[in-house]
Specification:
By secondary structure, this protein is mainly β. It has one domain: Beta Complex (Metal Binding Protein, Guanine Nucleotide Exchange Factor, Chain A), CATH 2.170.150. The protein is built from one helix and ten strands; from the N terminus they run βββαβββββββ. The strands form two sheets. A seven-stranded mixed β-sheet has the order 6-7-8-9-4-3-10. It has a three-stranded antiparallel β-sheet with strand order 1-2-5, with no helix packed on it. The longest helix is centred in the first third of the chain and has 4 residues.
Length: 122
């Protein structure tokens, strides 16, 4: 179990993760490239907001399926539900004090810029 916390501490979550995080990613979609977060994913039942649910605001864009959450006070992105798999919760590894995101190597890039659910005319 790891603990996630926004910058101001008004939002906290507990995340039940395997001993080693299975997937660590960055995304190149128009939103993620601007926020620059390193993320991981767990099943929804393994992510629980324990403090400050009322402080969370959501942001949706494009197809309005994915939900991105951030603290309404400090503005930090804490987690999201991706449109490609709404049964999962992506979370900001930068909000987990026990993880040094600057020491992570070989972070995979999720190609959100060319998302498979986008219908592109050829």
């Amino acid at each position: 179990m790891i603990k996630l916390q926004c910058h101001c501490g008004q939002v906290e979550a507990e995340i039940n993760v395997p001993e080693k995080l299975e997937k660590i990613i960055r995304c190149n979609c128009s939103f993620c490239k601007r926020r620059g977060a390193v993320m991981s994913l767990v099943k929804n039942e393994n992510f629980k907001v324990t403090k400050g649910r009322e402080k969370l605001k959501s942001y949706q864009f494009h197809t309005n399926v994915a939900k991105h959450y951030f603290c309404n006070y400090c503005g930090i992105y804490t987690h999201h539900h991706p449109r490609s798999n709404p049964a999962m919760t992506g979370f900001n590894l930068g909000c987990v004090d026990s993880i040094d995101t600057f020491s992570l190597n070989d972070i995979k890039i999720n190609d959100g810029l060319n998302h498979p659910l986008d219908k592109k005319d050829k």
